[in-house]
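Issue: copy button drops trailing tokens. Both records pasted manually instead:
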Amino acid sequence: DRVTKGQLLARVNRDELAAQIRSAQLTVEKAVEAEKLSRRKWDLLKPEQRESVKKDTQQARVQLVAAQSGWRKTQLVAPIDGIVASQNARVGEMMTGTALRIINPDAMQVEVLMSETDVPKLSVGQQARVTFDAIDDKVFDARITRIDPEATVVQDVTYYKTVLTLAQYDERMRPGMSVDVDLIVSQY
């Protein structure tokens, strides 16, 4: 499915949290009322009693704010415009981890490990041609958008992760697919 930034994707059952918020609201109301009553005889109270009354009201308000902030955490909204690539949660299930994975088809990227001997020949903005092993009838244009400054060592060979952004999206593309990348480092 296509989603837009800010779109509601999932919501946790809020019944218990709603009750906690209402309870916190009532606690604030009680604390404010108690402080109003205490202020009628404010001059008769010891300084520590006055401070205690103020702190009770402050504490009640802090608990209400904490409960309300929990309310905002019960919704999952799309962080970007994109396509739902995977859904790991279903209605009524308990889960931990990633609920949904969203990809941005306008910024599909390919990560490749380039050998240390090839990296000096590369530059950000350089053009490339990408073919997917699973999509045999099309060649995709891409550009290098990032070359990691730090090396990655695999089996005693030094590589640099290079990120290419594809110029176009194809519905057949999936995260994790194998690709071949052709980079033109010089022409005669």
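Record 2 (pasted manually too):
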Amino acid sequence: MIQGLAALVQQPRPAWKREPRVLLCPNIPKPMHGVAPRVVLGQAWWDNEREQACRSTDNHCIACGVSKLMAQWQRWLEGHELYETNYSAGRMVYLRTVPLCHFCHNFIHSGRLRTLLERGKVTNNKYGAVIKHGDAVLKQAKLRKPKPWDGPIAEWGAWRLVIGTKEFPPLYKDFEAWLAAMEAKT
């Protein structure tokens, strides 16, 4: 029995590869704020998708490689949706969900993190640690942050989240409605 257990333990684990370039995800366009697969497909779908993502990397952050048990700040992994975004056509196509540690996830959403800092909901120390962590992961992978998109951008109402064959329109009818909703959250 022990010999069989030893053989099982020594079997190679499923291979997965770190993907630090995940940290280069562009910001979600404002028309698509609040329109995410987890919202439009429901909590049960999201819970299953996130669980599968974590299993796919043996509970490690896909960007930096840290185990969820060794992650900074939070000892769990967070699901992050990856998209192919076409700004000029106004399409955000859902590709998959990946597991990220709290620091890598906040690095991707640095605009949100900065807003939390400005509102006093995140300390300067945490903000600095998140940015330092993400920058170090990118540096180690020899990656650089891309310049922000400066090409044509689709009109607000043209935007769609695409999941398979289904398309979902913006939650807010225009920038003013979006701005009012964001101000109400403060």
